[in-house]
Amino acid sequence: MFNVLRRKDVLGGLLLVAFGVLGLVLGASLDMGTPLRMGPGFFPRVLSWLLVVLGGATAAQGAAAADAETATRIVWRPLVLITTAVVAFELLIDRAGLIAATVAVVVLGAIGGRDARAAEVGALAAIMAICTAVLFVRVLNLPLPLWGR
Amino acid sequence: MELLGNLALGFGVAVSPVNLLFCFIGTLLGTLIGVLPGIGPLGAISMLLPITFQFPPVTALIMLAGIYYGAQYGGSTTSILVNLPGETSAIVTCLDGHQMAKKGRGGAALAVAALGSFFAGSISTLLIAVASPPLARLGTLFQAPDYFSLMVLGLIGAVVLAHGSVIKALGMILLGLLLGQVGTDLTTGRQRYTFGIGELSDGIGFVTLAMGLFGVADILMNLERSAMPRLAAVVGRLWPTREELRRAAPAVLRGTVLGSLLGVLPGGGAILSSFTAYALEKKVSRHPEQFGKGAIEGVAGPESANNAGAQTSFIPMLTLGIPSNALMALLVGAMSIFGVVPGPRIVSEQPQLFWGLVASMWIGNLMLLVINLPLIGLWVQMLRIPYRLLHPIILLLCCIGVYSLNGSALEVGLMALFGILGYALLKFGFEPAPMLLGFVLGPLMEENLRRALAVSRGDASVFIRRPISASLLAVSALLLLIVLLPTVKKVRQDAFQE
């Protein structure tokens, strides 16, 4: 039983079912309307049901198959650090500005890989901070706060 | 003669200094991302979109298109020299191209790939110019039910022709369609799946989705793999021998024809074209045993085909407004941000935009020839940049790109969520590209379905009573039926295995 749950198709199928169920539950209050006047709930509901059916079929197929590929293990280091890097950018960009956010993304992103070297990461962060400030803010005039707002 | 006048108009637009400059930047960037493994044209174009929003639409589109076909050129360099596809459509080029490089004929392989691509690019540009106006006129006959059916066909075609499992691709399209429902319902003004978050009332930003799925998720997958192999091969003499040219020329022709045709199909484009061209070359060759050991036809055919396919896939997008693959979906999204509605009226109402883009493609192909052959040494140097220096830069560009779009930090967080979703999907063997297609087409499909039903007074039979719609639906049903038949399933698997 436990092994079946590690199969790619089973996991992926269940993920689709989850999205379908989520679509149905969260969209429960949306009006179906009539064919003549389609309501806002019609299309999402049809799609959600199709997802549940299709995801269920994928999962069932994967569970029934004699030999199925199992999903490889999650490597936590890049997953956690890369996500943290993006979230750091989200939190810093308005409060501390582009330069701080850039340094945070580059440093966290770099140590998300397995062979980061301290000196290299520091240099890269400094170069990128200067480049983004000059290129995006000065040259391209993108609406980015340099020092936070 | 109308064609000549149109092309003259197009070249007039395309050779303006600004457009030439951005055509050059686009093809240069395209070559760069094509050469570098770990970042594809999907990720690159979504990263650069926000920057292009300050340009006039035609300039922006010229640059974005240049990235796409430029990546087809660049991808071959990495395939041939390091046996690592810089880009998905260059996978088959590894098979024979790298073998040639090992024998010291890498230069010839590169030259044939570039010359073949240039020839294919020129022919397919001409094809776009010839085929688009009549197709656009046909497009004006389409009404709501026909459009709905055309989109169904487009989505089914994308599933059938994509590599990998049909059911999984269908699932990705459905998920994309459902994500496209987030936001305000256009007709009733009702909020759908917005959780009261202001940013979501306009829907999920497609740049946010694309960068999560193709930027962040790709980084996560790449970092999981063991270190990327670095193996510089000898470039050797650049000019092919007369014997090599004699063998490559017919392959280039076949690849060009095949790629041009396959590019127009829903679900077609560069990837499908190169895979099919390789299979074709192997089949027609009198020495199939040489394939995989450095047969020059195995480089010339697919490389011409992927460039031809990349370009003709613009035809359905520009004339009917229907993107045939995820990359075209991205460009449709970009155009709608520029306020340009892709569809039959572009050709007649915005001739400058349309013909300017077409003309720029030929100019771009010429530039690529110059960028690729004499500068090959530069690209080889680029290959020495380790991925540990690249991925933080890519990640940073993704964050800045999403943020600068609407100045919303929340959307940066949303991108991280889609990154995790894309990572999970890739881990479970799902290819997320069709999702973007569904996402872009979702709102259009709902709109046309609603309009069709309103006009027919709620009678769903309108979809089979109108001849255009009925035949489109029939083709979709047939395609789906065929691909689910066991025998065809096997042939298809074999074809993609090549």
Question: Could you list some keywords that capture this structure?
Answer:
heterodimer, A: 149 residues, mainly alpha, 2 domains, 5 helices, B: 498 residues, two-stranded antiparallel sheet
What does this protein structure show overall?
The complex is a heterodimer of chains A (149) and B (498). With 149 residues, chain A is mainly alpha-helical. Chain A has 2 domains: 2-64; 76-139, no CATH class. Chain A is built from 5 helices and no strands. In chain A, α1 (8-26) packs antiparallel against α2, α3 (76-95) packs antiparallel against α4 (98-112) and α4 packs antiparallel against α5. The longest helix of chain A is centred in the middle third of the chain and has 23 residues, at 42-64. The model of chain A has no long low-confidence stretch (mean pLDDT 89). With 498 residues, chain B is mainly alpha-helical. Chain B has one domain. Chain B has helices spanning 2-14, 17-35, 41-52, 57-82, 91-102, 106-139, 144-161, 166-179, 206-224, 242-264, 270-284, 297-312, 314-320, 326-338, 345-349, 351-372, 376-382, 387-406, 409-427, 433-455, 462-465, 467-484, 486-497; strands spanning 183-184, 191-192. Chain B has a two-stranded antiparallel ribbon with strand order 1-2. In chain B, α6 (106-139) runs parallel beside α10. The longest helix of chain B is centred in the N-terminal third of the chain and has 34 residues, at 106-139. Chain B starts with a helix and ends with a helix. The mean pLDDT of chain B is 85. The chains are: A mainly alpha (149), B mainly alpha (498).
Low-pLDDT runs of 5+ residues of chain B are none
Count up the helices of chain B.
Answer: 23
Helix fraction of chain B by DSSP (H/I, runs of at least 4): over 70%
β-sheet strand percentage of chain A: under 5%
Number of domains of chain A: 2
Sequence of strands across the biggest β-sheet of chain B:
1-2
Biggest sheet details of chain A: none
**Terminal residue distance of chain B:** 43 Å
Shape of chain A: flat
* Overall number of strands of chain B: 2
Mean pLDDT of chain B: 85
Principal-axes geometry of chain B comes out as: globular
Helices and strands of chain A, in order, run as HHHHH
Distance between the termini of chain A: 54 Å
Helix/strand structural class of chain A: mainly alpha
Query: What does the oligomeric state look like here?
Result: heterodimer
Let me know the number of strands of chain A. 0
Taking all Cα atoms into account, the compactness measure Rg of chain A is 23 Å
Largest sheet of chain B: 2 strands, antiparallel
What percentage of the residues of chain B does DSSP assign to strands (E)?
Answer: under 5%
Instruction: Kindly state the percentage of residues in helix of chain A.
Output: 55-70%
